Amino acid sequence: MNLVIFGPPGAGKGTQSNFIAKKFNLYQLSTGELLREEIKNKSDLGEKISSIINSGDLVSDNIVSELIERFISKKEYQNRIIFDGYPRNLAQAKNLDDLLKNNNQKINVVLKLSVSLKTIKKRISERKDLENRTDDNEETAIKRYKTYEKNSKPVIDFYEHSGLLRVINGERTINEISSEISALIEAI
Ligand code: AMP
Q1: Tens digits of per-residue pLDDT, 65-98?
Q2: Which of 12, 63, 118, 186 would you call most buried, defined as having the most Cβ atoms within 10 angstroms of its Cβ?
């Protein structure tokens, strides 16, 4: 099974993906993590994207597409990927469909975590003490939320239209959300 976990920054995508990956033996593919690795390793790509990430904008579709294609085309990840943070716009959603089709795969379910901006601001301010992310200040968090708002509607419509979308109330506790997600996946 391949699944997409979708939602604004700070919605809990990473936390829930991690949980699902362990429970269902899937692979968590976080494009944000992959990009942060590039920055940490000071690769050419890392140098190019660090200011974009720190501003809260999206990195170009081509760059991210290349990163995920490496995984989609590998046998060991076949039909066991959680896409965490991809797609983030309609072009990426269509690209993901094409990449999967070319590798005889598809998306089985899209989990959308719904969370308000107020909750996200609160979570980001708490996360600052736990993780060392240079894009986790309130200003960038708001920018990232706005970027999400600008791009998310067509993606949601796209997956709703294909019957894959499941909306999850992300305002609850981590355990409550995990339980709902588990039940949902088990029912597929
Ligand atoms: P995340 O860890 O998912 O919150 O991503 C952190 C940052 O990485 C985002 O604010 C974007 O700048 C960049 N990023 C992550 N995933 C993507 C994507 N699918 N497309 C473009 N940029 C992305």
Answers
A1: 999 999 999 999 999 999 999 999 999 999 999 9
A2: 12
The rounded mean pLDDT for the chain is 94
Q: Ligand 1 mean position to 84 CA, how many Å?
A: 9
- The answer to whether the Cα torsion of 120, 52, 5, 160 is positive or negative is positive
Query: For residue range 105-140, what is the model confidence (pLDDT) as tens digits?
Result: 999 999 999 999 889 888 877 776 666 677 777 788
Residue from 88, 132, 134 whose mutation best tests the ligand 1 pocket (most atoms within 8 A of CB): 88
Is beta strand 165-169 parallel, antiparallel or unpaired with respect to 81-84?
unpaired
The ranges assigned to domains in the chain are 3-186
Please work out whether the CB of residue 7 comes within 6 Å of at least one atom of ligand 1: no
